[in-house]
Amino acid sequence: MPFYEIDGIKPVVHPSAFVHPEAVVIGDVLIGPNCYIAPFAALRGDFGRIILEAGVNIQDSCVLHGFPETDTLVEEDGHIGHAAVLHGCIVRKNALIGMNAVIMDNAEIGESSIVAACAFVKAGMVVPAKMLVGGMPAKVMRELSDAEMAWKIEGTDMYKELTRRSLNSLKICTPLSKVESDRKTFNLPSNKPLITFKKQN
């Protein structure tokens, strides 16, 4: 099981959330409705509290942690990309943190903002709403377009659907030795050929 208590404090997970069995959730972690926690994510509530509001997704290999007397908060519909690190920070409603980005202590990412992949947001930085942030160290680059904000919402909605799919159908299985002739796939155009394994001599 991926859940651990420490000093008598146990994680709290809403029944509609999905936490992958290979994620690790420790201590003072509150996971709200319809959240998705991917494989190898580590949510360590062993010093400060971690709070995920409704509809948040925490993708593969993310790390969430904080110092004592601090909360790490991701508000509703926060979208945390693969291998991002959040440490004692606040991610406001509908914001996106790109892959491999690092958000340091007491930083605040404004509502509906996007932090670019690999950005380093210094401790205490406050990002206004609806901004694109990037760089090492990160700087506010410009205001987001309507198209960019719509793209973010579409991506987060896909993870909400993945939460439902995972709760309904994800299970351990034995792999097949060959590709079935009628194999299903995800959103594959009907005119795209199916790639199969080459025959071995």
TrEMBL record:
CDD domains under this entry?
LbH_paaY_like
What is the top-level taxon of the source organism? Bacteria
Q: Known InterPro entries for this protein? A: Hexapep (IPR001451), Transf_Hexapept/Carb_Anhydrase (IPR050484), Trimer_LpxA-like_sf (IPR011004)
The protein's matches in Pfam families, at most eight in alphabetical order, are given as: Hexapep (PF00132)
Give the protein's recorded name. Carbonic anhydrase/acetyltransferase, isoleucine patch superfamily
- Could you tell me which species this protein originates from? Polynucleobacter duraquae
